[in-house]
Amino acid sequence: MIVVAISDIKERKGGKRIGIQRFDPRRSHTKVVVLREDGEIVEEMEGRILGNAEDHAPRSPRWIITYGDNTWTNLHTLIDLKNLDGVADFGCPWHMALANKFARKPPRFMRGFEALRRFGGIWEAPQHVRQRILNFYAEKFGVPGGKPAANKAKISYDEKTLCLNVPLETRIYDLRSLEIEELITMEQLYLELLKRIPRKARKAYLGAGYVGLIDPEKPNIVWYYVGWSTLVPRVPVGIFVYDRESGEIVAGPKHPLEIIWEEGLDEEYPAANLVRREDLYNLDSRLYDRALVGHIYGTYPGEAVFSVTVSLMRLAPRDRGERKRLGLPGGTDWSFPFKLDLDLRVRGYVSRFWFGDVEAVFAHSEMGFAGRYACLGCGVLAQVSMVDPYDPFDDRLLGGAVLLSRDFRVLRVFDAIRFEEWFRSEYGFVGRESYYVGVSWKRAAVSPDGGRVFVPVTVEDLHSREKWLYVFVSDWSGSNVRELGRWEGFRADRLGIVTHWSAWV
Fold first, then answer.
1. What gap in Å lies between CA 375 and CA 373, rounded to an integer?
2. Backbone angle region of 269, left / alpha / beta, with phi > 0 → left and psi within -120 to 50 → alpha
3. How far is the first Cα of the chain from the last one, in angstroms, to the nearest whole number?
4. 178-189 mean pLDDT
């Protein structure tokens, strides 16, 4: 079964509304389309602000959790594949509504805020209760609805535990009852960190955002990425491992570049040496103006996947010959995905790899819809903004998804540019420059066995502003392709059809 979230398409099969109770017909909504592998539509559900990334258990999952991966999205949406339904929760920090700020496991809320105990309870509450809660957060943050942000989320392999992140806190839910088990606040983590971090790093850790993901088999273990700033953490500050049972940090914190330098990986990733060590915690340095970004992308049992990206445009020389001498590619960014064990030792990484006959690097900016490294059952799927040739004198345009094994060996490569050429030829768009064609490899999905790819393709008539979405199942080479379906755009005055995420379960 394939599940895909798409904005601004006409309904082909009317479905239920999920997430929130009230809908504004003037706003753009998102269809969550459930497809069989033969293209039959099982259900179309309508929601709003359903994020641009998702997570689910690897084997026959019941639940999908959606979130905003480095974008400002204010709802986490939990989709029930068994009942073909869903519910959303608001991205404000619930610990502000606790009756006792030290009673976080389980949390005890102030009178009138009891609806927050349950995932989605704010939308199930009567209108006057919901409005009181929203007014409370508007007063706290000085803007209507507060400043919600639905950051990364993780479901345990046994589907008993859900972990999600909002500004200033991590929430742990019992997925069977949808009740909150625990709230982990930035304040309590910072107090633990003060015992371990040097004085020069305190200001950076204090103003950063904390994003934690549970170990999928031992959900008492939480991997944390600390990044600047609070709402959408990007600039790396540190990585550590937290034990929920003891309430203590059991490994770290360490800056990701310190890990790379300590293990001698700067020889493989020389972009790390463009960063001055004295700037790691200096808030006035260029690093904190997004010259260095990163994030956590997922967890496996006893392991977690992170990345750092150095902005070559800001830190590297522009001369191609000098870049060649320094071992740097010619693009604007160079991303370095890596995997850590519970002792924060590197257990896998990718610096350079072969994209067809071209030695290439990941050029991933961790900004907006740039992409991600998705931790799937069949491996790590790299869906990044661009793939650049490693040779700075090579100007070839590359793009597509790369499937890595759990130990970070390249298994398969999907060439999106070649797929676009096939599509234009097969569907009669060759030479028709008034039509935009885009292969959405950053929103593609991989079959559970890793053998096939689900590929969305958008087409727009630049004159009439009409839009269409085609979806395909293909092998990795693009030689065996089957169309699953197509949709028309909802309205010509919209910005365009957007595929937000897809999952093959």
1. 7
2. beta
3. 5
4. 96
The reported pLDDT for the residue numbered 21 is 46
Q: How far apart are CA 364 and CA 245, in angstroms?
A: 36
Which helix or strand (DSSP H or E) is residue 315 part of? helix 312-315
Q: What are the DSSP calls for 206-224, one per residue?
A: HTSEEEEEE-SS-TTEEEE
Residue 144 pLDDT more than 70? no
Long-range contacts of 58-62 (CB under 8 A, 24+ apart): 58/157, 58/376, 58/377, 58/378, 58/448, 59/157, 59/377, 59/448, 60/505, 61/155, 61/159, 61/505, 62/159
Q: Which residue has the tokens 């508007």?
A: 138
Using the structure block, give the residue that is written with the tokens 């298994």: 411
Q: Which amino acid is at 474?
A: S
Nearest to 489, CA basis, from 473, 471, 465: 465
**pLDDT for 203-246, tens place per residue?**
999 999 999 999 999 999 999 999 997 666 789 999 999 999 99
Question: Does the CA dihedral 196-200-201-205 come out positive or negative?
Answer: positive
pLDDT digits (tens, 9 = 90+) for 146-156: 678 899 999 99
What's the DSSP call for residue 495? S
Residue 43 has pLDDT above 60, yes or no: yes
307, 294 contact by CB (below 8 A): yes
Residue indicated by tokens 């924060």:
344
Q: Which two tokens stand for residue 237?
A: 């500050």
Tell whether pTM > 0.85. Answer: yes
What is the residue-wise DSSP string for 250-284? EEEEE-HHHHHHHTTGGGT-GGGGGS-GGGTT-TT
Average pLDDT for 325-352: 97
CA distance 8 to 492: 10
The whole-number pLDDT of residue 74 equals 83
Angle at 297 between CA 42 and CA 148, to 5 degrees: 75
Residue 154 CB: number of other CB atoms within 10 A?
26
DSSP 398: B
The secondary structure of 8-62 as a DSSP string is SB--SS---B-B-S---TTS--EEEEEE-TTS-EEEEEEES---SEEE--SSS-S
Closest CA to 403 of 472, 332, 477: 477
The torsion angles phi and psi of 416, rounded to 5 degrees, stand at -70, -30
Nearest CA to 393 out of 322, 467, 462 is that of 322
Residue of 21 and 257 predicted with greater confidence: 257
The total number of residues written for the chain in this structure: 505
